[in-house]
Amino acid sequence: MISDIDPIETISSLCAQKSLQIDVPDKWLKTPLHYAASRSSTISTLYILQRGAKLEGKDIYGNTALGIALMNKHFNYGIILIQKGADVKIPIYKEFPKRI
Predict the structure, then answer these.
(1) Which positions ≥6 away from 61 have C-beta within 8 Å?
(2) Which domains does the chain have, with CATH numbers?
(3) Which of 19, 37, 66, 88 is deepest in the core (most CB within 10 A)?
């Protein structure tokens, strides 16, 4: 079970590192913004967006942070991402998109 506590203390400590690149993805192509979206971590999200995180980064499934938020039923959080400029026209995938 994911905690409802926003990890802003951890995020702010990591962001204090001068060499930190906020949009470097992990092996699943998830960035800190994807993980914040899965938890609906609003404060952390605003903090990393302020430091230059990109809204449209896609994970291995092709999902953006907005897609992840909506799949997890974090609708209020999704509204915040939309207000910050997230593209509402990008499809949401529950599994790998089919290649044509």
Answers:
(1) 93, 94, 95, 96, 97
(2) 26-93 (1.25.40.20)
(3) 37
